[in-house]
From TrEMBL:
InterPro entries, A to Z: AAA+_ATPase, ABC_transporter-like_ATP-bd, ABC_transporter-like_CS, ABC_transpr_LolD-like, MacB-like_ATP-bd, P-loop_NTPase
Name the UniProt record assigns to this protein: Putative ABC-type transport system ATPase component
Tree of life domain: Bacteria
Span list, region Disordered: 220-243
Family: Belongs to the ABC transporter superfamily. Macrolide exporter (TC 3.A.1.122) family.
Gene3D superfamilies: P-loop containing nucleotide triphosphate hydrolases (3.40.50.300)
Keyword DNA-binding appears in the UniProt entry: no
Domain ABC transporter: 7-243
Any Gene Ontology CC annotation: plasma membrane
Keyword line: ATP-binding, Nucleotide-binding, Transport
GO molecular function: ATP binding; ATP hydrolysis activity; transmembrane transporter activity
SMART domains tied to this protein: AAA (SM00382)
C-alpha cells in the first residue's frame, strides 16, 4: 500500500450551461481514497453520483477543482493520456454498459486486456464470464442479451485487467438478488486478492455496508463536508470465488 492516495479530489465542481442559466451539478467536493479502500457513494437520484464517477474515470472534465488518480492530475493529461491512465489502472461498470454491440460477450470481456497487448486473454475472460453465470452466452452479441446479462458482461470486462481502481455505478441495479450477491462477492474478492480500490455507487444498503466507508451525496455535495482517509479497516472476510 502506498502513502499517496489512489484518488485525491480537491474542491471539485461541475456545472453545465442550460440556455442562459448555469446548472450546478457538483460543488465543493474534496475527498481522498487510500489504495485498497472500499467506499460506497450513496444518495438520492440526481444528487450527482454518476457525474462524479464519470469525472473520476476521466470521461468528463470538471468545471473547477482537481482530481488526481495515483498522483496523476487528470486536468494535466490530454484525452490520450486519460485513456492510457484508464487502461492501465481503472476498471469501470457504468449505468449504461458501454458494450460494443458488434463484439460477442467473450470478445467484449477480452478487449481491455487485448488493447494492452496482453496475450492468452481468453481463458481468464471465459472464467470471469462463468463466474457471473454467463458461460452459455459467450458468443452472444450484446443486443441479444438481457439487461442484467449485459451488466454482468460489463462487470466481467471491468475485472479483466485486475485494475487497481474499480469504479462501479449501481453494479447490482439490474440483477436478481442471487446474481447480485455473486457480483458483490466478486467485487470484494478482487479487493482482497489484488488490493483493488472500490468506489461503488449503490442504492443497495447491504452492499454499501460491506464497504469500509459510506459517503452520502446530496444536491451535488458530499454530506459532512471534507472527507479524509478512512480510519476503520472493515475488510470483508467472506467469499470464495477466485478472480
Ligand atoms: N450533461 C448534463 N447536462 C445537464 N444536466 C446534467 C448533465 N449531466 C447530469 N445532469 C444533471 O445532474 C444531476 C446529477 O446527475 P447524476 O446522473 O450524476 O445523478 P445520480 O446521483 O447518478 O442519480 P441516479 O441515482 O438517478 O443515477 C441530474 O439532475 C442530472 O439531470
Ligand atoms: Mg447515476
Amino acid at each position: 500500500m502506498t502513502s499517496t492516495p489512489i484518488i485525491s479530489i480537491s474542491n471539485l465542481g461541475k456545472s453545465v450551461r442550460l440556455g442562459s442559466d448555469n446548472l450546478t451539478i457538483l460543488e465543493g467536493i474534496s475527498l481522498q481514497v487510500k489504495a485498497g479502500e472500499t467506499l460506497a457513494l450513496v444518495g438520492a437520484s440526481g444528487s450527482g453520483k454518476s457525474t462524479l464517477l464519470g469525472l473520476l474515470a476521466g470521461l468528463d472534465l470538471p468545471t473547477s477543482g482537481e482530481i488526481r488518480i495515483q498522483g496523476h492530475s487528470l486536468g494535466e493529461l490530454d484525452e490520450e493520456g486519460r485513456a492510457r491512465l484508464r487502461s492501465d489502472h481503472i476498471g469501470f461498470v457504468f449505468q449504461s454498459f458501454l458494450l460494443l454491440p458488434t463484439l460477442s460477450a467473450l470478445e467484449n470481456v477480452m478487449l481491455p486486456a487485448e488493447l494492452r497487448g496482453e496475450r492468452d486473454c481468453e481463458p481468464r475472460a471465459r472464467e470471469l464470464l462463468a463466474a457471473v453465470g454467463l458461460k452459455d452466452r459467450l458468443d452472444h452479441l450484446p443486443p441479444r442479451l438481457s439487461g442484467g446479462e449485459q451488466q454482468r458482461v460489463a462487470i466481467a470486462r471491468a475485472f479483466m485487467t485486475r485494475p487497481s481502481l474499480l469504479l462501479a455505478d449501481e453494479p447490482t441495479g439490474n440483477l436478481d438478488s442471487k446474481t447480485g450477491d455473486t457480483v458483490i462477492e466478486l467485487l470484494f474478492e478482487l479487493n482482497r486478492t489484488h488490493g483493488t480500490t472500490l468506489v461503488v455507487v449503490t442504492h443497495d444498503l447491504a452492499l454499501a455496508q460491506r464497504c469500509q466507508r459510506q459517503l452520502t451525496m446530496a444536491s451535488g455535495r458530499l454530506q459532512g463536508g471534507q472527507h479524509g482517509e478512512a480510519s476503520a479497516d472493515g475488510r470483508d472476510e467472506s467469499g470464495a470465488l477466485s478472480v
